[in-house]
Amino acid sequence: MKILVTGKNGQLGSEIRAIEETYQEISFIFTDSKELDITNHFQFKEQIRKISPDVIINCAAYTAVDLAEYESEKAASINYLAVENMAKLCKNSNIRLIHISTDYVFNGKENKPYIESDQTEPINEYGRSKLKGENAIIASDVKAIIIRTSWLYSTYGNNFVKTMVRLGQEKNEVNVVSDQYGSPTNAEDLAEACVSIALSEKKWKEGAEIYHYSNIGEINWCQFAKEIMSISNLECEVKPVSSDEFRTKAKRPEFSNLNKDKNRRDFDLNIPDWNTSLRKNLLK
Known about the structure:
Elements: E1 2-6, H1 11-18, E2 27-30, H2 41-51, E3 55-58, H3 72-93, E4 96-102, H4 125-140, E5 144-149, E6 152-153, H5 160-170, E7 173-177, E8 181-182, E9 185-186, H6 187-199, E10 208-212, E11 219-220, H7 221-231, E12 237-241, H8 261-267, H9 274-282
Parallel strand pairs: 1-2, 1-3, 3-4, 4-5, 5-10, 6-9, 7-12
Antiparallel strand pairs: 8-11
Helix pairs in contact: 1-6, 2-3, 3-4
Protein backbone atom coordinates (compact mmCIF):
# COMPACT_ATOMS: atom_id res chain seq x y z
CA MET A 1 0.00 0.00 0.00
CA LYS A 2 1.19 3.50 -0.85
CA ILE A 3 0.06 6.36 1.42
CA LEU A 4 0.65 10.04 0.68
CA VAL A 5 0.71 12.23 3.79
CA THR A 6 0.37 15.99 3.28
CA GLY A 7 1.45 18.47 5.93
CA LYS A 8 4.40 16.37 7.05
CA ASN A 9 5.81 19.04 9.39
CA GLY A 10 2.61 19.65 11.35
CA GLN A 11 1.80 17.86 14.58
CA LEU A 12 -0.08 14.94 13.04
CA GLY A 13 2.16 14.60 10.00
CA SER A 14 5.22 14.53 12.25
CA GLU A 15 3.69 11.84 14.44
CA ILE A 16 2.87 9.69 11.40
CA ARG A 17 6.49 10.06 10.27
CA ALA A 18 7.60 8.96 13.74
CA ILE A 19 5.70 5.66 13.46
CA GLU A 20 6.50 5.02 9.78
CA GLU A 21 9.04 2.26 10.45
CA THR A 22 6.52 0.16 12.37
CA TYR A 23 4.47 -0.33 9.18
CA GLN A 24 6.73 -2.22 6.79
CA GLU A 25 3.77 -3.08 4.57
CA ILE A 26 3.20 0.59 3.74
CA SER A 27 5.19 2.85 1.45
CA PHE A 28 4.79 6.37 2.86
CA ILE A 29 5.36 9.55 0.88
CA PHE A 30 5.52 12.67 3.05
CA THR A 31 5.17 16.18 1.64
CA ASP A 32 4.97 19.74 2.90
CA SER A 33 3.69 22.89 1.21
CA LYS A 34 7.04 23.53 -0.52
CA GLU A 35 7.09 20.07 -2.07
CA LEU A 36 3.37 19.83 -2.77
CA ASP A 37 1.24 22.96 -2.55
CA ILE A 38 -2.32 21.70 -2.21
CA THR A 39 -3.65 25.16 -3.11
CA ASN A 40 -1.95 24.94 -6.54
CA HIS A 41 -4.57 22.77 -8.17
CA PHE A 42 -2.63 22.08 -11.39
CA GLN A 43 0.57 21.15 -9.55
CA PHE A 44 -1.34 18.96 -7.14
CA LYS A 45 -3.01 17.09 -10.01
CA GLU A 46 0.32 16.47 -11.73
CA GLN A 47 2.01 15.28 -8.55
CA ILE A 48 -0.85 12.94 -7.66
CA ARG A 49 -0.64 11.45 -11.15
CA LYS A 50 3.10 10.78 -10.64
CA ILE A 51 2.83 9.46 -7.07
CA SER A 52 -0.33 7.42 -7.68
CA PRO A 53 -1.11 6.70 -4.01
CA ASP A 54 -3.72 4.27 -2.75
CA VAL A 55 -4.62 6.58 0.15
CA ILE A 56 -4.08 10.25 0.94
CA ILE A 57 -4.01 11.31 4.59
CA ASN A 58 -4.56 15.06 4.42
CA CYS A 59 -2.90 16.63 7.46
CA ALA A 60 -2.35 19.96 5.70
CA ALA A 61 -4.53 22.73 7.12
CA TYR A 62 -4.76 26.37 8.07
CA THR A 63 -5.04 26.17 11.87
CA ALA A 64 -4.44 29.73 13.11
CA VAL A 65 -7.88 30.09 14.69
CA ASP A 66 -7.64 33.74 15.71
CA LEU A 67 -5.78 34.87 12.59
CA ALA A 68 -8.45 33.24 10.43
CA GLU A 69 -10.83 36.00 11.51
CA TYR A 70 -8.70 38.37 9.40
CA GLU A 71 -7.47 35.86 6.81
CA SER A 72 -10.72 34.11 5.96
CA GLU A 73 -9.82 33.85 2.25
CA LYS A 74 -6.47 32.21 3.03
CA ALA A 75 -8.13 29.81 5.47
CA ALA A 76 -10.76 28.93 2.86
CA SER A 77 -8.15 28.37 0.14
CA ILE A 78 -6.42 25.69 2.25
CA ASN A 79 -9.26 24.23 4.30
CA TYR A 80 -11.97 24.35 1.65
CA LEU A 81 -10.98 24.98 -1.99
CA ALA A 82 -7.83 22.83 -1.88
CA VAL A 83 -9.77 20.06 -0.16
CA GLU A 84 -12.54 20.28 -2.73
CA ASN A 85 -9.98 19.86 -5.52
CA MET A 86 -8.27 17.01 -3.66
CA ALA A 87 -11.56 15.17 -3.21
CA LYS A 88 -12.45 15.44 -6.89
CA LEU A 89 -9.02 14.16 -7.95
CA CYS A 90 -9.26 11.26 -5.50
CA LYS A 91 -12.71 10.41 -6.83
CA ASN A 92 -11.53 10.42 -10.45
CA SER A 93 -8.38 8.41 -9.65
CA ASN A 94 -9.97 5.90 -7.25
CA ILE A 95 -7.82 7.10 -4.34
CA ARG A 96 -9.18 6.83 -0.80
CA LEU A 97 -9.00 9.98 1.31
CA ILE A 98 -8.58 10.49 5.05
CA HIS A 99 -9.19 14.12 5.94
CA ILE A 100 -8.71 15.75 9.34
CA SER A 101 -11.41 18.14 10.52
CA THR A 102 -12.30 19.76 13.82
CA ASP A 103 -14.69 20.01 16.74
CA TYR A 104 -15.01 23.70 15.83
CA VAL A 105 -17.70 22.83 13.28
CA PHE A 106 -20.07 22.82 16.28
CA ASN A 107 -21.42 25.83 18.18
CA GLY A 108 -20.67 24.39 21.63
CA LYS A 109 -24.22 24.65 22.98
CA GLU A 110 -24.76 20.92 23.59
CA ASN A 111 -24.46 19.35 27.05
CA LYS A 112 -23.53 15.85 25.92
CA PRO A 113 -20.72 14.60 23.62
CA TYR A 114 -21.38 15.42 19.98
CA ILE A 115 -22.15 12.55 17.62
CA GLU A 116 -21.26 12.72 13.94
CA SER A 117 -24.82 13.49 12.79
CA ASP A 118 -25.39 16.42 15.18
CA GLN A 119 -26.16 19.76 13.57
CA THR A 120 -23.10 21.81 12.65
CA GLU A 121 -22.95 25.55 13.28
CA PRO A 122 -19.41 26.95 13.46
CA ILE A 123 -18.95 30.19 15.38
CA ASN A 124 -15.61 31.29 13.90
CA GLU A 125 -13.99 31.57 10.45
CA TYR A 126 -11.68 28.62 11.05
CA GLY A 127 -14.64 26.36 11.83
CA ARG A 128 -16.56 27.65 8.81
CA SER A 129 -13.64 26.93 6.47
CA LYS A 130 -13.27 23.39 7.85
CA LEU A 131 -16.99 22.69 7.53
CA LYS A 132 -16.92 23.82 3.90
CA GLY A 133 -14.07 21.34 3.36
CA GLU A 134 -16.15 18.56 4.89
CA ASN A 135 -19.14 19.39 2.71
CA ALA A 136 -16.98 19.50 -0.42
CA ILE A 137 -15.70 15.99 0.29
CA ILE A 138 -19.23 14.70 0.83
CA ALA A 139 -20.46 16.37 -2.38
CA SER A 140 -17.64 14.81 -4.44
CA ASP A 141 -18.83 11.28 -3.54
CA VAL A 142 -15.20 10.21 -3.03
CA LYS A 143 -14.51 7.22 -0.81
CA ALA A 144 -13.36 9.13 2.26
CA ILE A 145 -13.09 9.18 6.02
CA ILE A 146 -13.45 12.59 7.65
CA ILE A 147 -12.02 12.60 11.18
CA ARG A 148 -13.06 15.40 13.49
CA THR A 149 -10.62 15.88 16.34
CA SER A 150 -10.05 18.38 19.15
CA TRP A 151 -7.41 20.02 21.34
CA LEU A 152 -4.54 18.42 19.43
CA TYR A 153 -1.07 18.34 21.01
CA SER A 154 2.20 16.48 20.48
CA THR A 155 5.94 16.69 21.01
CA TYR A 156 6.12 18.60 17.71
CA GLY A 157 5.12 22.13 16.74
CA ASN A 158 3.27 24.65 18.87
CA ASN A 159 0.44 23.51 21.10
CA PHE A 160 -1.21 24.07 24.47
CA VAL A 161 0.77 21.41 26.33
CA LYS A 162 4.15 22.77 25.24
CA THR A 163 3.03 26.32 25.99
CA MET A 164 1.93 25.38 29.51
CA VAL A 165 5.23 23.60 30.20
CA ARG A 166 7.16 26.65 29.03
CA LEU A 167 5.04 29.06 31.08
CA GLY A 168 5.29 26.74 34.08
CA GLN A 169 9.06 26.98 33.90
CA GLU A 170 9.02 30.77 33.52
CA LYS A 171 6.18 31.94 35.78
CA ASN A 172 4.76 31.41 39.25
CA GLU A 173 1.15 31.55 38.05
CA VAL A 174 -0.90 31.47 34.85
CA ASN A 175 -4.54 32.22 34.04
CA VAL A 176 -6.43 29.61 32.03
CA VAL A 177 -10.09 29.55 30.98
CA SER A 178 -12.27 27.17 32.96
CA ASP A 179 -15.59 27.42 31.09
CA GLN A 180 -14.64 25.66 27.84
CA TYR A 181 -15.00 21.87 27.99
CA GLY A 182 -13.81 19.14 25.65
CA SER A 183 -11.20 16.43 25.40
CA PRO A 184 -7.52 16.65 24.41
CA THR A 185 -6.07 14.55 21.61
CA ASN A 186 -2.55 13.19 21.66
CA ALA A 187 -1.45 13.41 18.01
CA GLU A 188 0.52 10.19 18.43
CA ASP A 189 -2.72 8.33 19.21
CA LEU A 190 -4.47 9.98 16.26
CA ALA A 191 -1.58 9.05 13.96
CA GLU A 192 -1.93 5.39 14.90
CA ALA A 193 -5.69 5.62 14.35
CA CYS A 194 -5.27 7.17 10.88
CA VAL A 195 -2.91 4.45 9.72
CA SER A 196 -5.10 1.73 11.23
CA ILE A 197 -8.13 3.13 9.38
CA ALA A 198 -6.15 3.34 6.14
CA LEU A 199 -5.30 -0.35 6.45
CA SER A 200 -8.93 -1.33 7.13
CA GLU A 201 -9.80 -1.53 3.43
CA LYS A 202 -12.86 -3.76 3.80
CA LYS A 203 -14.48 -1.44 6.34
CA TRP A 204 -14.56 1.57 4.02
CA LYS A 205 -17.96 2.45 2.55
CA GLU A 206 -18.90 4.15 -0.69
CA GLY A 207 -18.90 7.92 -0.36
CA ALA A 208 -17.70 9.85 2.70
CA GLU A 209 -18.16 8.90 6.35
CA ILE A 210 -17.55 11.20 9.31
CA TYR A 211 -15.92 9.94 12.51
CA HIS A 212 -14.88 11.58 15.77
CA TYR A 213 -11.54 11.01 17.46
CA SER A 214 -10.17 12.48 20.68
CA ASN A 215 -8.94 10.88 23.87
CA ILE A 216 -11.52 9.58 26.32
CA GLY A 217 -12.78 11.87 29.07
CA GLU A 218 -14.06 15.41 29.53
CA ILE A 219 -12.22 18.36 31.11
CA ASN A 220 -11.85 22.11 30.79
CA TRP A 221 -8.68 23.94 29.76
CA CYS A 222 -7.88 24.94 33.34
CA GLN A 223 -8.08 21.33 34.56
CA PHE A 224 -5.90 20.29 31.64
CA ALA A 225 -3.30 22.92 32.50
CA LYS A 226 -3.23 21.87 36.16
CA GLU A 227 -2.57 18.26 35.19
CA ILE A 228 0.21 19.33 32.82
CA MET A 229 1.90 21.21 35.68
CA SER A 230 1.45 18.29 38.06
CA ILE A 231 2.86 15.64 35.72
CA SER A 232 5.75 17.95 34.81
CA ASN A 233 6.51 18.68 38.50
CA LEU A 234 6.17 22.41 37.91
CA GLU A 235 5.29 24.64 40.87
CA CYS A 236 3.15 27.05 38.89
CA GLU A 237 -0.33 27.95 40.11
CA VAL A 238 -3.05 27.68 37.49
CA LYS A 239 -5.84 30.19 38.15
CA PRO A 240 -9.26 29.71 36.55
CA VAL A 241 -10.71 32.59 34.53
CA SER A 242 -13.81 32.94 32.38
CA SER A 243 -13.81 33.33 28.60
CA ASP A 244 -15.06 36.89 29.12
CA GLU A 245 -11.93 37.65 31.15
CA PHE A 246 -9.62 35.97 28.61
CA ARG A 247 -10.92 37.27 25.30
CA THR A 248 -9.63 36.00 21.97
CA LYS A 249 -10.28 37.27 18.44
CA ALA A 250 -12.21 34.14 17.54
CA LYS A 251 -14.98 32.68 19.67
CA ARG A 252 -14.44 29.13 20.94
CA PRO A 253 -17.17 26.55 21.61
CA GLU A 254 -18.08 26.31 25.29
CA PHE A 255 -18.46 22.55 24.94
CA SER A 256 -16.96 20.39 22.20
CA ASN A 257 -16.46 16.91 23.61
CA LEU A 258 -16.77 14.32 20.85
CA ASN A 259 -18.54 10.97 21.05
CA LYS A 260 -16.17 8.25 19.77
CA ASP A 261 -18.53 5.25 19.82
CA LYS A 262 -18.90 5.04 16.03
CA ASN A 263 -15.14 5.09 15.51
CA ARG A 264 -14.50 2.39 18.10
CA ARG A 265 -17.32 0.24 16.72
CA ASP A 266 -16.44 0.42 13.01
CA PHE A 267 -12.63 0.27 13.30
CA ASP A 268 -12.14 -1.57 16.61
CA LEU A 269 -10.01 1.27 17.92
CA ASN A 270 -8.76 1.23 21.50
CA ILE A 271 -8.81 4.93 22.38
CA PRO A 272 -6.80 5.85 25.52
CA ASP A 273 -8.10 8.25 28.16
CA TRP A 274 -6.71 11.78 28.07
CA ASN A 275 -4.68 11.51 31.29
CA THR A 276 -2.90 8.32 30.20
CA SER A 277 -1.98 9.87 26.86
CA LEU A 278 -0.86 13.13 28.44
CA ARG A 279 1.48 11.23 30.77
CA LYS A 280 2.83 9.25 27.82
CA ASN A 281 3.58 12.52 26.03
CA LEU A 282 5.15 14.37 28.94
CA LEU A 283 7.18 11.50 30.40
CA LYS A 284 8.92 10.45 27.19
